[in-house]
Amino acid sequence: MTAVPRSPARPELVSALPILTILNDPDRAAMYRHLAGQAGVPTIEAEGALHALTQLERMPVAAIICDAQMEDMSGEDFREVVTAEESTHDVPVYVLPQLPEAGNGDAGALPTSPQVLGEVLTELGLSPAQLPVPLRTGAPAHLHGDLSQFSLPEFLNWVAEMRFSGHWLVTVSSRQGAAQPLAGHLVMRGGDLVYAECGGHSGKAAVFTLLQAIEEYRDAIFHFYLAEAPDDVRSPDLHAATPRLLIELAVDLDHHAAGHSLH
């Protein structure tokens, strides 16, 4: 995901103009809105490329972040349209990577919202000091370590018991055939796991993908940042309390492993 601005970055302009997002997942769009807001940058959202073009006629933006495939146009085609217009030709368009086909070793190596937004805001000229956690690379975490002795569910349950809110960033390395590590982003609000994304999946499927990769490769590190969690974000299938959710996922992982062992 790259898009170099065609004019020099102006941080004061970035904070004044919004970032336009065109994302198929409304919860992911809400997460971008929350994280950008924490950096002092407003966002506006469009439901598809045509809606976005209408909004661009009415309001200038600092940058655009869109999915590789929207309901009415591909991300690359949309970028060409934006570049061809005189009023928007210098607006950088960041097209998110498309989920590779199953069986591809890099299928999970997709960036999470903090990774994408941190890159975009940095390229637009914001200094690292202006970026909130979890966007700020190298920011001190309240809890961090590897998962060699204790499992991720154990840490999640502990934070849930303390009823903390914040962001988890989890990285799984050494995946066979993968050029990049698998990254996961989890959000807790008052101890409840309310949002997750990993490997192109969201919600419960994202947590399953992350736990499965950790179990398979056993080479993972995590950082937990105690921070305000958005009130308007909750993945539809993350409705159970964290301990109950993790029990359900443990059963799913056992069933998945048993099914594979039969073949």
Features of the shown structure:
263 residues; alpha/beta; Rossmann fold; six-stranded antiparallel beta sheet; four-stranded parallel beta sheet; 8 helices; 37% helix; 19% strand
Sketch the major β-sheet: 6 strands, antiparallel
Helix content: 25-40%
Number of DSSP helical runs: 8
What percentage of amino acids are in beta strands? 15-25%
Outline: globular
- What is the succession of H and E elements? HEHEHEHEHEHEEEEHEH
Average predicted confidence as pLDDT: 88
Number of domains: 2
**Uncertain spans:** 4-8
In order across it, which strands form the biggest sheet?
Answer: 5-10-6-7-8-9
**Count of strand segments:** 10
Terminal-residue CA separation: 37 Å
Pfam families: DUF4388
Organism: Deinococcus radiodurans (strain ATCC 13939 / DSM 20539 / JCM 16871 / CCUG 27074 / LMG 4051 / NBRC 15346 / NCIMB 9279 / VKM B-1422 / R1)
Protein name: PatA-like N-terminal domain-containing protein
InterPro entries: CheY-like_superfamily, PatA-like_N
Structural write-up:
The chain is α/β, with parallel strands linked by helices and 263 residues long. The chain has two domains: 11-123, 3-Layer(aba) Sandwich (Rossmann fold), CATH 3.40.50.2300; 140-261, no CATH class. Helices cover 37% and strands 19% of the residues. It has eight helices and ten strands. The protein has a six-stranded antiparallel β-sheet, covered by helices on one side. It has a four-stranded parallel β-sheet with strand order 2-1-3-4, with helices on both faces. Strand 8 (192-198) and strand 9 (201-202) form a beta hairpin. Helix 2 (26-38) crosses helix 5. Residues 4-8 have low confidence and may be disordered.
